[in-house]
Amino acid sequence: MLQLNGFSIEIAGGSLTVLKSKIAPTDVKETRRSLGDDWFTMYHEGHLYSLAKNSNASGGLGETELLVLSDHLGLRFVKAMLDQAMRGVFEAYDPVRDRPFTFLARNVDLVALAAENLESKPRLLSKFEIRPKYELEAKVVEFRPGELELMLALNLTTRWICNASVDELIEENIPVRGMHLIRRNREPGQRSLVGTFDRMEGDNALLQDAYDGQDKIAASQVRIEGSKEVFATSLRRLLGNRYTSFMHSVDNEYGKLCGGLGFDGELRKMQGFLAKKSPIQLHGGVEVSVGRRVQLTNQPGYKTTVELPQSKYCFDRSRTKLHPYVWDGLARFGPFDRGSFPTRSPRILLVTPDSASGKVSQALKKFRDGFGSSQSSMYDGFLDTFHLSSAPFFPLSVKLDGVQRSDVGKAYRKAIEDKLARDDDFDAAFNILLDDHANLPDSHNPYLVAKSILLSHGIPVQEARVSTLTANEYSLQHTFRNVATALYAKMGGVPWTVDHGETVDDELVVGIGNAELSGSRFEKRQRHIGITTVFRGDGNYLLSNLSKECRYEDYPDVLRESTIAVLREVKQRNNWLPGQTVRIVFHAFKPLKNVEIADIIASSVKEVGSEQTIEFAFLNVSLDHSFTLLDMAQRGITKKNQTKGIYVPRRGMTVQVGRYTRLVTSIGPHMVKRANLALPRPLLIHLHKQSTYRDLSYLSEQVLNFTTLSWRSTLPSEKPVTILYSSLIADLLGRLKSVDDWSPAVLNTKLRNSKWFL
User: Fold this and answer.
1) Is 603 domain-assigned?
2) What family does this belong to (predicted)?
């Protein structure tokens, strides 16, 4: 039995009379200010809807409008009122946020629970808290066509809080320089984030970066902003060698709270609390009551929930070599482009710290040639699996003896530059790191420094840590499967596609993303690069494109230019003929605020495809939404006395939550890695109204198929590659920005067809 993470809402009353006024978006804030607290307002599609809160209200705007509370506009108005009413329902709590209404648990702290069995607790440990964070948001849903209703969704996450003063942290020798400071008491309208800590001067904290040129603030007014990074830095120093086991206890407490059983318990408690508070009085005499949990059921004539067929991996162009499991298919058939991959004997540069070169060479020989008779044939080697003739390694030892941590990146840079000056004819490179160096700051991190130099020479890079390569042979075989797949793809190979029926002459799936290149949270966030990744309908990766760097206000024009250029290139490459039917499906994860990306894409498609019959679909594909699914019949998977995946729905379940909106589960119970994880969130797929192709069943199945196409691993990913690849590119672009002499220009030339970002 499938359930959503919320409760049905019953509305007493059939209609409501409001005022409706046409207002530009830029005038909404000022209009609301002028109306004051006597009016409740909702802005929707260019109009401001107003309702007097009391009989003394004056100064209303617009003409009267009757809202029927069972249709879309009426339900949206009730939703807005209910969201605002949550502050009164939870009057005992100070909200963290009003929309959606968010508050923290007062008597539950995961750090304190994990510390109950800890002997000799450090004094400052009590100043670190992880508190449950509850978020309530009303949602208009449509589980069957024309049957609109309102539900109240509950989300449960955590807030990480550091209450220790800067002085206390310094006394414990915790390196606080560079950590962000936030205000202890924030006034309305005031920023919480103050700046980045530099050092103490008397009673003041001096700032490295800050808003408005502020260079110091009284230390008593601020505290360190809580984050996982701050906790890791601080608790490692406080707990020493007990840190790892302690954080495992924290993870277990988190799993008890946010896993299937824990979340179900929180839903039950919230339902009981809200039932006692019902009916809830809203403005205009409207009353709402919180009912039972939302059940998802199919009815005769219409299916709200559908289980999609599982993807089949494809290993040849004729679609005759298919297999349900990717590695078994690779081992049996070889890669999809087995007969056309041009580099049969790739030359691979092996960059290794001198202290580990022997162990690394032994491990990578097994990576290339397989494990022989020492293990069962779980991994047959890079050469045999991908049908290569040879893959000679060219070792480059980086001398690190006596090198300071801050200079490790320089040592890698010098060694690689000297090598490439003599010989730069490499098809790929391995860059091996000591564990101690993997988390150095980006500007001198050997991972990023080496990647920037090698990418600049058109050489894709595969990284690995020494500890990974020296693990036991059983673990290594699974690791090598993923490494081999990623390395082959980075060299331009196609490990596999999916068995996806083609119903038009040509079908493209295009991922639209962007990278924000601000170097600091305190700079104006206005430098952007558009990221476009292009695939065939079966998931075969074609190319990626980066737009020129631009200001925020110029981004729409730059995105349009970039999209037109990419589509024209694909049109020429695929030889679109006049009258040919072409389908183009666009996936966007999180469009920039106030940028109508769908409008830009629609006009670009029209301009490029004027001679063709274009079917066009624009999808927002997101994990950032209010819905979670629970399968109350799923009792989990038990291994080694641990049960994981309780209440996790099967992979491939789709649920209609709106006429053009679906939820799709991409992580099933067998894919949940540990018992102490939260319930996985489904993908939310929303079809834009401008789309001319609207088969959401087909599009949902395609999105699910694209989660199996990540060549970063042999397992499906949580996101489709259209979204995943753009986010990987964006993350690396943001980090590489910190490295001296880095330029992304090569990514649009030598590496355009490479999956360099895997």
Assistant:
1) yes
2) Belongs to the argonaute family. Long pAgo subfamily.
